[in-house]
Specification:
Layout: E1 26-34, H1 39-46, H2 51-59, E2 62-70, E3 75-82, H3 87-96, H4 98-107, E4 111-112, E5 124-126
Antiparallel strand pairs: 1-3, 1-4, 1-5, 2-3
């Protein structure tokens, strides 16, 4: 399920309520374009995400990571729940992981970042506007 590079591998600083001192869950959503000719390959890759990549995601306190495809607009929507205490450190650990970097090298050419994304973002962060309890 991990796409490349991580949505939060960015310098975006206006994300609401990112955990820093307590261990509470933060729901996060992301969007990016996908090249239509690469959709079959992207789907194939994500049917068997490498165990080392999944382990690094888990070690970085990311849970319930899902990616959805919207056609014909060719958009990927990513969702995850962050349970950690230091978001920037956890995202840096994912970005520094050699297996994750190799994974990103395979998935990255499939993706088309949005022009409207914030500086430093690959996947564009989305604002949460509703969540049922």
């Amino acid at each position: 399920m991990l796409a490349t590079p991580l949505p939060l591998r960015s310098t975006h600083t206006s994300l609401p309520d990112i955990p820093t001192e307590t261990n509470h869950m933060q729901k996060m959503g992301w969007v990016i374009g996908i090249d239509p000719q690469h959709i079959p390959e992207y789907k194939r890759l994500h049917t068997a995400v490498w165990p080392a990549v999944l382990l690094r995601i888990d070690q970085s306190q990311v849970r319930n990571y899902s990616i959805f495809l919207r056609e014909p607009e060719n958009l990927l929507f990513g969702y995850w729940e962050y349970h950690g205490q230091d978001f920037e450190v956890d995202m840096a650990a994912i970005a520094a992981d050699p297996d994750t970097q190799r994974w990103w090298a395979l998935c990255g050419p499939c993706q088309r970042p949005l022009e409207s994304r914030s500086p430093g973002e690959h996947w564009a962060a989305m604002e949460s506007v509703f969540c049922s309890a």
